[in-house]
Every structure is written in C-alpha cells, then in structure tokens.
Specification:
With 587 residues, the chain is of the alpha+beta class. It has helices at 39-47, 62-68, 75-82, 88-100, 111-115, 147-159, 181-193, 226-237, 315-329, 340-347, 349-360, 406-419, 442-446, 450-453, 482-495, 564-579; strands spanning 123-125, 134-137, 144-146, 165-168, 174-179, 255-258, 272-278, 285-291, 304-311, 383-386, 392-397, 403-404, 423-426, 432-438, 466-467, 496-497, 504-507, 521-530, 533-542, 554-561, 582-583. The strands form five sheets. A five-stranded antiparallel sheet has the order 1-2-5-4-12. A five-stranded antiparallel sheet has the order 3-13-14-11-10. Bound molecules: siroheme (SRM) and iron/sulfur cluster (SF4). The site of siroheme has 29 residues, from strand 2.
Length: 587
C-alpha cells in the first residue's frame, strides 16, 4: 500500500525528557526578510495596480510571487494580493478602540476584511448564523493548557455573557464563541499574556499542532513530543506574535506528530504526519514523514509514505523548510487543488524530499517507514490509567461533542490545580484529561460535580462521540450537528447495549471537520427527503479504522433524513448488525 515500507521489530520506549515544558522562548526566529523583487516582477506588480507593501506579495519569495501572479489565481489569492491578512494582527486592536468609542461598527467593514482577513488574527465572523459575532480559534500546541490559561479562558468567556461558550476541537484545540469587535482585542492580547494565542489559526495558515494527549506520561511512547510541538508552534507563529513569512501559504496545512503506535493525532489525515519510529539501521528514535493526507469536498486523500527519516533535532527545521517549499512552489489557481498533496504529486516524493533537504542544507535519510509484525489496538485515554511515573495517574473525561461553558473552563483549571499538576490535555476526540494525579487524590477527584456532566467512565457510544460545529454557528453547514449528535447518542445509549466502544462522528458538510472517514460510523450532512419534502439528511459512512494501518470508512447509505423516526432506527440496525449491539431488555 501507499503507507507500506520496511519491517522492523517493536522497541521499548525510551525515557521521556525530564523537563516537560517551558513558555520561555528557546530561540529567536527573527524578522523575516523576503527576497528582493526582480525588476521584471516589480514591473508586473506595478502594472497590475497592486499595493506591494500591503500585499502578500511582499512576504513571498520570487517563485511564490510568480505563482501568486499567475493569470488564473483563485479569489482568496486575489484578496491576499490586494491586502494581506497579516494586517489583522494590528487592525484588531485599533478596531476595538474605534468600536468602543462608537466611531465604527462591524457593518462598516469591507466584506474581505471582516470575513476573510480577520482569520489571520484567529477571528471567524459568523455572518450567516450570528452576524456581528466572531468565533476565535486558538493555538494550543499538543492540546496542553495550564490552570492559569484555563482561568483566563473562563474569565474571557464570562465577559461575553449569554453569547459566550467554547469548543474543544477535532485538533485538540480551544475555540471561544460570541465575541464582538468591542471585546476581540482585549481577548487577543489577554491570551498572549497567558502564553496562548489565536494568530494564524484560520485561512491559509498552519493549524493547531497535534501530538499525543498522554505525551510524557505514556508508558508506550517512543518520545515526549511536547517540546517539539511548542517549538514548532513558536516557529510558525513567532511566539504567538505572528510570522508573516509563513502566513502566505497557498492553503491551510495540518501537521501532526505521533509518538506512539496509537497514532493519536491521526497522522494519516494530516498534510505532514511525523510518525515516531526507530531507524532500522542506526536504532535511533526519530520520525518517518507521511505526506499529503487531507479532506475536502472534492477529494479525501490518505497520506503517502514520504520516505524521509528525521532525527529529533531536524524536525523543526524540516517543518519550516517544508512550509517554505509549499509557500514558494505550491500552485495558487484552483483552490480545490492547492493542498500539500497536489504539490507532492506534482514533484514526486523523491524530488520533494530533495528540495526540502536542499533548503535545510542536508541530505535527508530514507528507509524508516515501519510495519510492525504484531497488532496494536489504539488505546482509549478516557478513564483512570497508571502513568509511566509510578504512583501517578491520568484521568480522562468525555466532553459531549466538545461543547463547553465559562464554568467548565473554570472547573477544568480548578481540578488541575487541586488534584493534578496544574495542567490539562485535550484530545482530537474533543475530550479532556488531567495528567499527574497522585493515587491518593483519585477518590476525591472523582466526586467533583464536573464529572457528572463530563463522565470519566462514559458509555461505549457517548464516550467516542465526535461532532463538528454544524449549523448552529457554521455558515457552510447543511445540517445541525452537535445538539442532534448529543440527543441521538443519549437515545442510543438508553436503548442499546454495545459490547465495545463504537466511534460515531458527525460532520455538517463534506469538508469533514468532524472526520467521518476515520469513524466506525460517520454521519455527513447532505440532502434527504421526508414525505416527499426536502429535509436535513445524512450520508452514512461505515468502517473507518484508526491507529496503525488505518482505512477510510466507505459510504454505506445516503439521503437518510435526520428526523428521529428515520435516523434512530437506521443507526440502531447498523449498531446491531455490524457492531454486535443488542436491544436493552426493559427492566
Ligand atoms: Fe474545519 C472550514 C470548523 C477541523 C476541514 N472548519 C471550517 C470553518 C472555518 C468554516 C467556517 O468558516 O465556518 C469551520 C468553523 C466553524 C465554527 O464556527 O466552528 C470549521 N474545523 C472546524 C472545527 C472547529 C470542527 C470542530 O468542531 O472541532 C475544527 C477546528 C480544528 C482546529 O482547532 O483548528 C476543524 N476542518 C477540521 C478538520 C479535521 C482535522 O484537522 O483533523 C478538517 C479535515 C482535515 C483537513 O483539513 O484536511 C477540516 N474545515 C475543513 C475544510 C476543508 C479543507 C479543504 O482543503 O477543502 C474547510 C473549508 C476550507 O478550508 O475551505 C473547513
Ligand atoms: Fe462547518 Fe462543514 Fe466544518 Fe462542520 S464540516 S464545521 S459544517 S465546514
């Protein structure tokens, strides 16, 4: 298969580094100086009437500029050529002051400014569902946050009143909802004060760095990937202040680091998936690169073997040069053909590796893709588990569909402080866990009222539920997802006994933010009819597998109405026939 390679035997995990994390900058990434314009390009830019200083063109290399000036560039490229989204980093502060002084309001802003460019500051205008309000998407590398950060998120969300709530996302990240321009700057800067940030989290930027929710505490990991994820995030965002050099990519890009055989971050659906392995010849612990995984409305691609071995100290440089390669060489025409896979396919895996290696000034090694002789079941991190550190445990709880309130943020932080080490971890299944809980604290911790809402030992269906945002807030949604997903799972749990966890994922449209292709049962918003009339419906996918040797779910049925009388019996029959569920016998 595309992901096959050499076969080596499993190895014992080495000890994780003793120092877990630091918010202090480890390295200065400096100010990026873009390549000087050639006279020919300068002439073309002038003739096109582009204001170079404010355009993305200022930040691109000359080859990138060539591509951004191609005759058939897409609309987003035109917008970025006209004025770059990086101005949003400064605009947001100015706007807050003007709005509070009554000198402007959101309706006065140009459509591209408010709906597109603001995304560089992590602000997503919810024009269709909640006009005038924004969702703010953060960066939470490796899904790790501290009590101080959680308490700040509680305070910020409370400030937003009834409109304020939050999400844990499918990239182990936080989003804040219900922000208006009068508060956006305060939260933007408030986040930075607690070591968080929202820059470069939307549009053509790198998404949240994912790793393992049990990094550093996992008895089975090859290495602790947290330090690498922080360094990568610092490189990408220039310590959360914004990095213009890497904010002019042709499209979004997802990077995930998997330190164990569980593949917690789903590297197979990341544009760049770094899979920890032991080099078959040297025995060194590093990463094999998998390239090009992604979902979209037009194409869903599983990553292919990038046949590149990275030593741990090459990871950040490799990712920086890969982003520069994508920025400089990626095409900017049809937006459906601009994800990294298209560039890798155009260049070929070998040439792509050589190009990135050339930019790093090294010859990159090959031949490290691992196929293990034995099977490895991806572990659930919910519940209570002993860590590799004796006497310490992690406690994982299920957050239904990832939806949270200000009080939840507060309780997450309080519990971390009272029973753990003052930190939490998020998962790509939109759940939460507390690491480093001493055994003596376990009993009292479980009695906390939060765990009545967010169960430590959830049912086999509710514990694996994932859902994208859906029509409540997302303008692209075909159907409502989160609330419907929660209501449906409750009924299924009440009516069925399911012998083991079944991962049901909901996604409101074919963009598949809720990743239906990786699910046991995936429900994707689509058209349907009920009594001859158009109604909200789903396409049903079945049979995705994750972890080692993943496979995508395939379409099972489509045009199924979401109406409970149709969908519930349909899901029950799939669960009974394919997953061994049984009707509960009434007591
Ligand atoms: Fe997504 C666009 C929400 C993970 C593929 N995604 C959107 C937007 C921004 C559309 C919009 O403007 O409304 C959604 C915002 C809705 C809102 O109000 O929250 C949105 N995506 C989400 C989140 C919040 C879903 C969730 O409930 O958890 C996830 C945020 C992750 C994060 O923290 O950054 C989210 N999106 C994903 C994933 C899953 C993943 O990364 O594993 C995917 C599929 C993987 C991939 O990207 O290849 C995904 N989102 C998309 C796409 C399709 C990309 C493409 O190449 O075509 C879009 C549309 C686009 O970019 O044009 C999109
Ligand atoms: Fe919105 Fe579609 Fe993504 Fe759901 S899958 S959040 S509906 S873009």
């Amino acid at each position: 298969t595309a992901r096959s390679g050499v076969r080596v035997t499993a190895v014992a995990a080495p000890e994780a580094p003793a120092e877990p994390r630091s918010f202090e900058p480890a390295k200065d990434w400096g100010v990026y100086e873009a390549e000087p314009l050639t006279p020919e390009l300068a002439k073309r830019i002038k003739e096109a009437g582009i204001d170079f200083e404010n355009s993305q063109l200022k930040w691109l290399s000359n080859s990138g500029r060539e591509r951004a000036l191609a005759p058939k560039i897409n609309k987003a490229e035109k917008t970025k050529n006209e004025k770059h989204g990086i101005t949003a980093w400064e605009d947001v502060t100015q706007l807050g002051e003007l709005v509070r002084a009554g000198e402007t309001k959101w309706e006065d802003l140009g459509l591209d400014d408010i709906d597109v460019r603001m995304k560089w500051a992590g602000l997503f205008h919810r024009r269709k569902r909640a006009p005038g309000t924004f969702m703010m998407r953060l960066k939470v590398p490796n899904g790790e946050a501290t009590t101080k950060q959680l308490h700040y998120l509680a305070e910020a969300t409370r400030m937003l009143g009834d409109q304020g709530c939050g999400d844990i996302t499918t990239r182990a990240n936080f989003q804040i909802r219900g922000i208006s321009l009068a508060e956006a700057d305060k939260i933007f800067h408030g986040l930075q004060e607690v070591g968080l940030s929202s820059v470069q989290s939307g549009m053509d930027n790198v998404r949240n760095m994912t790793g393992s929710p049990i990094a550093g505490i996992d008895p089975h990991e090859f290495l602790d990937v947290r330090a690498l994820n922080y360094e990568l995030n610092d490189m990408i965002t220039n310590y959360g202040k914004g990095n213009a050099a890497l904010a002019s990519l042709p499209r979004k890009i997802n990077i995930g680091l998997s330190p164990s055989r569980d593949d917690f971050p789903h590297t197979h659906i990341n544009d760049v998936g770094l899979v920890a392995c032991q080099h078959p010849e040297t025995g060194e612990i590093g990463f094999n690169v998998e390239l090009g995984g992604y979902f979209s409305t037009k194409r869903n691609a599983m990553s292919i073997n990038g046949n590149t071995f990275l030593a741990q100290d090459q990871v950040v440089d490799y990712c920086q040069r890969t982003l520069e390669t994508f920025r400089d060489l990626g095409r900017r025409e049809d937006r459906q053909k601009t994800r990294l896979m298209w560039l890798v396919e155009e260049m070929g895996v070998e040439a792509y590796r050589e190009e990135v290696g050339r930019r790093m000034g090294v010859k990159l090694r090959t031949g490290a893709h691992v196929e293990y002789p034995d099977k490895w079941e991806r572990r659930s991190v919910l519940g209570i588990h002993p860590q590799k550190q004796e006497g310490l445990f992690w406690v994982g709880a299920n957050v239904p569909a990832g939806r949270i309130t200000a009080d939840d943020y507060q309780a997450f932080g309080d519990i971390a402080e009272k029973y753990g080490d003052g930190t939490i971890r998020l998962t790509v299944e939109q759940d939460i866990l507390w690491p480093n809980v001493p055994e003596k604290n376990l009993e009292a911790m479980q009695k906390e009222p939060l765990f009545q809402k967010f169960k430590i030992f959830p049912g086999n269906l509710e514990g694996s539920l994932v859902s994208c945002t859906g029509a409540q807030f997302c303008g692209l949604a075909v159907i409502e997802t989160k609330n419907r997903a929660m209501a449906t799972i409750k009924k299924l749990e009440e009516q069925l006994d399911t012998p083991k966890p079944v991962r049901i994922h909901w996604t409101g449209c074919p963009n598949s933010c809720g990743q239906v292709q990786v699910a046991d049962i995936g429900l994707m918003g689509g058209p349907a009819k009920l009594n001859g009339k158009a109604t909200e419906g789903v396409r049903i996918f079945v049979g995705g597998t994750i972890g080692q040797d993943p496979t995508f779910a395939s379409e099972f049925e489509k045009g199924i109405a979401c109406d409970e009388s149709i969908l519930l019996p349909k899901l029950k029959s799939i669960l009974i026939e394919k997953f061994g569920a049984k009707e509960k016998v009434p007591a």
